[in-house]
Amino acid sequence: MRLKILLRRAPFIAAFTGFALFATLLFYFIPQNEFVVDNVVVAPSKEQVSLSEGQGLGSPIRLKIPKINVDAAVEYVGLTPDGAMDVPKSQDDVAWYEPGTRPGEKGSAVIAGHYGWKGGEPSVFDSLYTLRKGDKLTIEDDKGEIITFVVRESRRYDPNVDASDVFGSSDGKAHLNLVTCEGEWDEVSQSYSKRLVVFTDKE
């Protein structure tokens, strides 16, 4: 499936990030104000596995990435009436698609966060691009469990390339993929030039 992320500006609408979900493995980033991220499309998965692979995990409540000083609340988002994945309320929070894979379960969980904000204010994933192989991050769930993930690689995508690997996994392991956008703002296309995905594996 193609990875198509569009960005546009709406100067008089409150800035927020939203993540649209359709039946394809396609995702979009569409800011509703200047320099804000929007829409990720994922395919939901509710597969349950053994305890060692994720069964019995709670729902995520915090994402911590020490290297980039991220300590973010995790908002649970689902679908809006028009079929879009709902939005995090704050540029400081991240959004996890609740009907999909839980972080720590077998498969690929996806969490997305804002890149940029109106007026140049910082957002949670502004420094996501600095993560490197071997860097660690943690998810805390509502049962008090801490799950550690290790960065495997980062990839930068053109909006029209195939991105099925962001949302799907067939290796029987647990992954957490962090999504945002980056690059230069293009006034003609009203879009950022690149899409950044950081792929991580459960430790």
UniProtKB/TrEMBL annotation:
The chain crosses the membrane at residues 12-30. GO terms for molecular function: hydrolase activity. CDD domains: Sortase_F. The keyword Transmembrane helix applies. Pfam families: Sortase. Keywords: Hydrolase, Membrane, Transmembrane, Transmembrane helix. This is Sortase. It comes from Candidatus Terrybacteria bacterium RIFCSPHIGHO2_01_FULL_48_17.
